[in-house]
Write a structure and sequence with these properties.
Blueprint: E1 4-11, E2 15-17, H1 33-42, E3 43-49, H2 50-59, E4 77-80, E5 93-96, H3 100-111, E6 115-119, H4 121-129, E7 135-141, E8 149-150
Parallel strand pairs: 1-6, 1-7, 3-4, 3-6, 4-5
Antiparallel strand pairs: 2-8
């Protein structure tokens, strides 16, 4: 069985998308080629949310399902929404109107033993609250946005602890140093 992974790039000030779910701020930011190859090789399906889908579908009508990993990956794409009837159609997207846990189960089944990747901060938050995330992978981009879609916006909950996946102490903080570019 594949994992449910929350995988994204985040700005230094904690935003996963800019205002209006824009992603243009990622232009010129790179991750190592092995990172993409590993992610693509283990990815079986994507589960996204309606707000992000709408923003992507407006920029790429009928092609939103071909956008994960810059088009280097293809497979089942699901969008969880309360109103599928007014969504911009995309032949590669299946719209779901169920509970988030059921949507995760549907995505995992479609992934056929590979991973289900969450592409929505709201869906990821719901999955974290229900203990459905198996792995969280974040790439920190050297940019501050000042506004947009927060990585994790869930006031009032207890802290969510993560154990770092690497050799050594899993609770060790990551030290980063930057200067203005």
């Amino acid at each position: 069985m594949g994992k449910v992974r929350w995988h994204l790039m985040m700005s230094l000030d904690g935003f996963a998308a800019g205002p209006g779910h824009s992603m243009d701020w990622m232009s010129g930011v790179r991750v190592g080629p092995d990172t993409h190859h590993e992610s693509i090789a283990t990815l079986g399906a994507v589960l996204g949310g309606r707000h992000g889908y709408d923003a992507l579908a407006e920029r790429h009508p009928g092609q939103a399902s071909k956008q994960p990993y810059g088009g280097a990956w293809s497979g089942p794409v699901f969008v969880l929404t309360h109103h599928p009837e007014d969504a911009i159609p995309d032949p590669g997207v299946t719209f779901l109107t169920c509970d988030v846990a059921e949507a995760v189960a549907i995505g995992l089944a479609a992934a056929k033993g590979k991973d289900l990747e969450i592409h929505s901060q709201d869906i990821a938050r719901q999955c974290v609250e229900r203990g459905l995330i198996d792995e969280f992978r974040v790439h920190l981009a050297p940019v501050m946005l000042g506004a947009g879609v927060r990585l994790f916006d869930c006031p009032g909950i207890e802290p969510v602890r993560w154990a770092r996946i690497h050799d050594g102490d899993p609770a060790q903080a990551v030290d980063l140093r930057y200067r203005p570019a």
